[in-house]
Amino acid sequence: xxxxxxxxxxxxETVGSNFSEQLLQTARDKTxxxxxxxxxxxxxxxxxxxxxxxxxxxxxxxxxxxxxxxxQIRFGKNTLLHFGQKPTEDFALAENDIFFFDIGPLFxxxxxxxxxxxxxxxxxxxxxxxxxxxMILNKVRDHWKTEKVSGVELY
Length: 155
What we know:
alpha+beta, Creatine Amidinohydrolase, 3-stranded antiparallel β-sheet, two-stranded antiparallel ribbon, 4 helices, disordered N terminus
């Protein structure tokens, strides 16, 4: 997906002549499927690199061997890194911890860019963090839909 911004700040988003809203929604739904299937198999002691390999296998099985951007898979303290910042270690997930995926697989040339946070164990702070992230996401999405703001205006 590409985005062209004019000198006046107006946004013209394009994905090419084969764009389909239905294919975009299907890509999103399949991406959520990949994330959820992978998250179910994540366990304490697993390394980020092992989760990345698992995610790529599941993504290929679901029909998207390629991605728009490299998958961001973070466990524990690595969830605090900025997007694109490389971890200094291959971190293992702890018993009561948090992790997230931000992936952009391509299904029929449509990106299903989705990110989700998860927890394992019973840490109430981690569970609240995941809940609050979803709540904020929903509020932002609702604002975007009702106010019809551009991505630039939203952020």
